[in-house]
Amino acid sequence: MKLGEFTETQISALARKAYEEGDVGFEIVEENCALLVIDMEEEFVKPHWTPFWVPEATRQVEKIKTLITHCRGRNLPVIYTASAYTHFRLDRPTTGDLMPNRYPELGIDDPSIFRDGRIVHELSPLSEEIIIYKPSYGAFYDTPLETILRNLKKDTIIICGTLTNYCCGMTARQGYERGFKVVVGSDVTSTNDLTLHEAELKVLRAGFARVLTSDEIIKALS
Questions:
Q1: 12 in any annotated domain
Q2: Which residue range is the domain that position 139 belongs to?
Q3: 177-218 per-position pLDDT tens digit
Q4: How far apart, in whole angstroms, are the C-alpha atoms of residue 20 and residue 7?
Q5: Residue 75 and residue 112: Cα distance in Å, rounded?
Q6: 120: which of 1, 8, 126, 144 lies 20 to 30 Å off by Cα?
């Protein structure tokens, strides 16, 4: 096709194919990888505890544990993130508490929520593994993650955790913008609305990341 000859039908088909079938042009090189376990903390994973519980995240704990165990066995860094009380909460976007996803109508004012950044015990970090306490959705925003990855000489990040369309997706975008190769696990990321999970994976697949199942990731790292 020549410039100026594309029909609306053709460009719609191109976009749809990229969203649904697209695959980025990089290979996964094991020694260049680090696993990011995004926000698998009690507030999101512990059943029935908070309104921020993501039931699908709870169901994915065993799959994520398998991925973590595999990466540890291959001597790949496993880096955790969590939301916690840091810097008197002066290190985060000022409008955060005004967002509807904080559920202000519930009137919950419990200082223990998102205070300690406790990873669920099934996925507990080892003593030598890093936990990054991040002030917003993306793991690169105002954190040392990029410096840590550069010092580890890792150029590829594998993302698992929750929520797909918030912290996982934002981290994928921020990693892409910083020149990292990004891999997102389709069955080891989760959100509170399955339709939004699938929609976010489509966007990431088309423009930011390689989207694979956890089995495909493990196979690529073997």
A1: no
A2: 29-220
A3: 999 999 999 999 999 999 999 999 999 999 999 999 999 999
A4: 20
A5: 34
A6: 144
Q: What is the pTM of this model?
A: 0.97
The per-residue pLDDT of the chain, averaged, comes to: 96
Looking up tokens 């649904």, which residue turns up? 20
DSSP per-residue letters across the chain: --TT---HHHHHHHHHHHHHH---S----GGGEEEEEE--BHHHHSTTSSTT--HHHHHTHHHHHHHHHHHHHTT--EEEEE----GGGTTS-TTGGGSGGG-GGG----TTTTTS-PBPGGGPPPTTS-EEE-SSSSTTTTSSHHHHHHHTT--EEEEEEE-IIIIIHHHHHHHHHTT-EEEEEEEEEE-S-HHHHHHHHHHHHHHT-EEE-HHHHHHHT-
**pLDDT digit string (tens) for 104-146?**
999 888 889 999 999 999 999 999 999 999 999 999 999 999 9
Distance CA(176)–CA(172), nearest Å, equals 6
Domain assignment present for 142:
yes
* Separation of CA 67 from chain center: 14
Q: Which of 51, 39, 42 is nearest to 109 (CA)?
A: 51
In CATH, what number is assigned to the domain containing residue 105? Answer: 3.40.50.850
Task: Please list the residues that pair with 183 across neighbouring strands.
Answer: 158, 210
Chain-centre distance of CA 111, in angstroms? 25
* Cβ–Cβ < 8 Å for 188, 67: yes
Q: How far is residue 209's CA from residue 134's CA, in Å, rounded to a whole number? A: 21
Residue 165 lies in a domain: yes
Residue 143 lies in a domain: yes
